[in-house]
Amino acid sequence: MRRAALPPDALDATDRAILNALQDGFPLVQHPFAEAARPLGLTEDELIARLRGLREIGAITRFGPFFDAEAMGGAFCLCAMAVPEDRFDAVVTLVNAHAEVAHNYERRHRLNLWFVLATERAEAIETVAQAIEAETGLAVLRFPKLREFFIGFRVQA
Fold it and tell me: I want to staple 37 with a disulfide (CB 3.0 to 4.6 A). Which of 4, 47, 51, 71 is the partner?
């Protein structure tokens, strides 16, 4: 389940422009991909094909809305685990089996697996974290959000 870094030439200027543009919103119209493609100089089909390609090479892992669970009465929690190297892929599979896992990533230090839990109710964070601990036999460290920061991601086009 590990992904290698993309080579420097994996994204062309159009891919980079797509990544930048679609982070600023997505049109809520009858043909949203056609509308989003227009300022990029693409057709609807070209944009969809490019997004599919970005997903296939691992430049993006998903394409969809980001819901603010807290604004809807739910909760987010950043979690980390120290996973033995020889169990990493198996543990990632167990963690990813939980619908509440919004995303995860590997880091190269003792706490090598990080993931975000997003739940409908705040108390469900503890329930899901405990379930992951029971399934893996490993501790899930919980880092609840104390303050929110927004850091935009932009790639040079």
Answer: 47
